[in-house]
Amino acid sequence: MNKNLPYVKLLLASSDQDKMLDNAQKISYNLCTSEFPILNILDYKYSPKKAIEELGVDLELMNQLIDDFVIQIVKESTTFNEFLEELQDLQTYTKNLDYTILRELAHKNLGVARNLRIEDSEKLLEIIMKENNLEYILKAVECLLSRVILLRPEQAYKTIRLIQVKSSF
C-alpha cells in the first residue's frame, strides 16, 4: 500500500464499521477544509431525487446504482493507489509523468458520478482526471474514498471487508 496515502490505508484496513465511519468523517473534514475548501463539499448531502427524475428510474434501482458506484470506488481505490505509487517512483527520474491510466479510470467513474448526480464525487474525480500535481491528486483520491464511505457506509464497509477477505488468501 502506498505510504503516501495513509488515509486510504486507514480506511481500507477498517475492521469495524463504526470506526471506519468515524475515520471517514475525520478524513473528509480534514481534507475538505485544508485541501479542497473551494469545492464546497464538506456539508454536501446527496439526494437522488434529481437523478431519479432525469434518468426515469425508481428509488430501488437508484439505490442499487448508488451502491454499485460505492463498490466500484472502494475497489478501485486499490488500483488508484498502485498507479499513484508507480508515478511517485517515476517522479524521481522524470518530470514528465504519464497520467493516462489514472485519467481513464477517473473519467469512467466521473461519468457514473455525473449520471447519478453525486456532486462531491464528481468534483473530486474531475481533479483526479485533470490535475498534474501528483500530491494534490493523492489527496483527492483520499478525499474521494472518504466521501464515498460517507455516502453509503454500510455498502462501503461490506466491500472493504470483502477486499480484506480476498487479500488474506
What features would you highlight for this structure?
single chain, 169 residues, mainly alpha, 75% helix
Q: Can you walk me through this structure?
A:
- By secondary structure, the protein is mostly helical.
- The chain contains 8 helices and no strands.
- It has helices at residues 6-12, 17-34, 49-55, 59-91, 100-116, 119-130, 134-151, 153-167.
Mean pLDDT: 90
Oligomer: single chain
- The number of helical runs is 8
Q: Biggest β-sheet, characterized? A: none
Q: What is the global morphology?
A: globular
Overall SS class: mainly alpha
Radius of gyration: 16 Å
β-sheet strand percentage = under 5%
Q: Which segments are poorly predicted (pLDDT under 50) over 5 or more consecutive residues? A: none
Structure summary, number of beta strands: 0
Q: Span between N and C termini?
A: 17 Å
Q: Spell out the helices and strands N to C.
A: HHHHHHHH
Percent range for helical residues?
Answer: over 70%
Summarize this, please?
With 169 residues, the chain is mostly helical. It has helices at 6-12, 17-34, 49-55, 59-91, 100-116, 119-130, 134-151, 153-167.
Secondary structure elements and pairings:
Blueprint: H1 6-12, H2 17-34, H3 49-55, H4 59-91, H5 100-116, H6 119-130, H7 134-151, H8 153-167
